Amino acid sequence: METTQITEISVLGKKWKTATSGEKKEISKKISAYLLKADAQQLTTLLPSIKSLSWLTDECLDYVLGKIYDTDKIKKLFPLSRKKTGQRQKLAERYGALIEAKFQSAPFKEKVAIFKEANNQEGFTEIDQENKKFCQRHWQDFIHTINNYEKGLLIYDAFIGNHLTCPEIWATVAAIKTIKVWTKQNNLKKIDSGQAALLQKLNLSLQPGKILVAQEILKKMGQ
Q: Using the 8-state DSSP alphabet, how is residue 222 labeled?
């Protein structure tokens, strides 16, 4: 049955190129009718036959996105979307909701991994914006969780991003908090012998101006 539907969608899609505005609306309704009847598994089979999200009605696109729980699948739909129609914004919002839901239910190390991935992704502008908003929501929470050297280094590493507004400042805040915790938990002899190794790991962010800003941020955070 799905093979027949794929063939029919393909035939309708070919008609789209030369169709009038009114004809496109009818084609969109017919194609959308197939997808609206499909469950998540059937959608996986049918979606590759969709060459443009313009073929789908708004109701159908909302239905399809509601059945997708994989951010990679959302990103694969971006080349099929048109910016002016608001489709990309819908895709981005679904993407943002999925990474937030995954983050909320994840254990600590997985949370760090999710943050690091979001903080280092480059791609479609709308996705970048969702990643940026996600990271801005959660970076301070991570600073509050730094209570030992190992956790501090994990968070510091996740904060070294490539597309956010001031990733180095976030990383500097994490570096200084890590240093404060580390020095508090060790004696002077161990600090003296281990400081070179620690500073080497954190030196990407330890510039004088950034240190001053980061110290003030920590004060405001009560850290």
A: T
| pTM recorded for the entire structure | 0.86
3-state helix, strand, coil in the chain (%, to 5): 80, 0, 20
How far is Cα 151 from Cα 185, in angstroms, rounded to an integer?
A: 14
Residues in the chain: 223
**Residue 162, exposed/middle/buried by CB under 10 A (0-12, 13-18, 19+)?**
exposed
Task: Give 160's Cβ-side CA count (13 Å radius).
Answer: 12
Residue 186 sits at φ, ψ, to 5 deg, of -125, 160
**Distance between CA atoms of residues 137 and 53, nearest Å:** 30
- Cβ(98)–Cβ(73) under 8 Å? no
Q: Which residues contact 154 (CB under 8 A, 6 or more apart)?
A: 109, 112
Give tens-digit pLDDT for 79-130.
Answer: 998 876 789 999 999 999 999 999 999 999 999 999 999 988 776 788 989 9
Task: Name the 3-class secondary structure at 126.
Answer: helix
Closest CA to 14 of 60, 43, 50: 50
Q: Is there a contact between 175 and 209 (Cβ–Cβ < 8 Å)?
A: no
Q: Which long-range contacts (CB under 8 A, 24 or more apart) does 136-140 make?
A: 136/164, 138/103, 139/115, 139/170, 140/221
| Residue 180 to residue 217: CA distance in whole angstroms | 14
Rounded Cα–Cα distance for residues 35 and 58 (Å): 12
